[in-house]
Amino acid sequence: MARPTPLSGFPEWLPDGRIVEQHVLDVLRRTFELHGFAGIETRAVEPLEQLLRKGETSKEVYVLRRLHDEPAAADEPADRQGQLGLHFDLTVPFARYVLENAGRLAFPFRRYQIQKVWRGERPQDGRFREFVQADIDVVGAGALPYHYEVELPLVMADALGALRDLGVPPVRILVNNRKVAEGFYRGLGLEDVEAVLRGIDKLDKVGPEAVADLLVAEAGATPEQAAACLELAAVHGGDASVVDRVRELTERHGASTELLEEGLRELGALVTAAAERAPGVLVADLKIARGLDYYTGSVYETVLVGHEDLGSICSGGRYDTLASDGTTTYPGVGLSIGVSRLVSRLLSAGLVRATRSVPTAVLVAVTSEERRTASDAVAAALRARGIPTEVAPSAAKFGKQIKHADRRGIPFVWFVGDADEDGAPAQDEVKDIRSGEQTPVDAATWTPPAEDLLPRVVAAG
How far apart are alpha carbons 38 and 29 in whole angstroms? Predict the structure, then answer.
């Protein structure tokens, strides 16, 4: 068989990288549960028409079909009815889950969800076609208080802050409010708000001059209106003074609206609360647009300080109409961490490492194949006490067995004692192959040091 060609955009970590990923997931899960979020998992596929409700995503969706399905004729339009697609985020399946289970859920419903998603985009640094996301959402039935828009980004700040001991860089959560943006644009006389938001969302990628041209060409803005939109996008700050600056800008352009004032009140409350609970973590940034059209209030993007080139590793916002059964609307607030993007940067930048690449703490040596059962018995006794153990693959010379353990990062090698001439059992011994120290031990009582029991993830250095 020829050597396989790797598929770009489908990350496969080596064992030590997988340990890092699992540690990150465990920290996130633990933090989410500390804040009262219940874990769920949804199916990998959704009806194609449901996936395509969200906006301009048709090029991103992987369609699922059986190999032996009858292909459509060349001149026959593809029928989406009944077709399935792999979910490209966890929000669409969650909305469906809420509708299907509304009668059995207690609202406000707090959930976290950690799963793989699939997105057909061009792979590049930190952007994959298959990746793990970790989402939290709070959804209400009919109404959802504003204070959740303050709470959820701070939960994410806690979750990411819990990784700081590993050397993970600090995070900065950038926040805006869609009511501010939409109210300002409408106050300027711009009606195609979605086109303006899509243009502003590209600001970091193409720069202000190109965005100004886009607003004129695609949103029907005059050069003066485009310049005013860019002025709003330039406002940022970590305290409530940003509200005063937006009001000054609004008065100067005659763009005041009730919607804008409502958004400014909410944005001011969010920034003020965050400054008290997590100083320096949350910053108002009026260029944050989040191009998806279902956001209706606060929107968030999160960057690693010093690694801003990676882009947002966590984003989300308030949505009021994503899920509705025609009678009841289920508004919510949610954020999503791109776990694979985060892990890829931690590994590629050498920020963290696993202390070893295998769970095994002890390798039990084999003196001869006839004595393998004695080694198996020791391994079973150690495992029964929660010590990850394996038995040497062959009865090679002890030096080779020690080298085998060293190559795999196993810190201890156990030697089973042979009975003496009178039949009395000889003492087992364990060797710390890092220090060379070898001591008598008993499988019923010996335990490795706590730091050696399991692989740990530590800051590289």
Answer: 10
Question: Looking at residue 9, what DSSP letter applies?
Answer: T
Q: Which residues have a Cβ under 8 Å from the Cβ of 238 and sit 6 or more positions away?
A: 271, 275, 280, 282, 283, 284
Torsion of CA 407, 408, 411, 416, to 10 degrees: -90
* Residue 278 neighbours by CB distance under 10 Å: 16
> Which tokens belong to 174?
């950038």
Q: Pairing relation of β-strands 130-139 and 171-177?
A: unpaired
pLDDT digits (tens, 9 = 90+) for 59-98: 789 999 888 766 655 544 456 667 899 999 999 999 999 9
Print burial letters for 289-321: b (CB count within 10 Å at least 16), e (below 16).
bbebebbbbbbbbbbbeebeebbbbbbbbbbbe
Nearest alpha carbon to residue 137 among 99, 108, 111, 172: 111
Tens of pLDDT, residues 98-121: 999 999 999 999 999 999 999 988
Residue 119: both structure tokens together = 């997105």
Q: Would you state the structure tokens that stand for residue 250, as one six-digit string? A: 């609004």
List % helix, strand, coil for the chain (3-state, nearest 5).
40, 20, 40
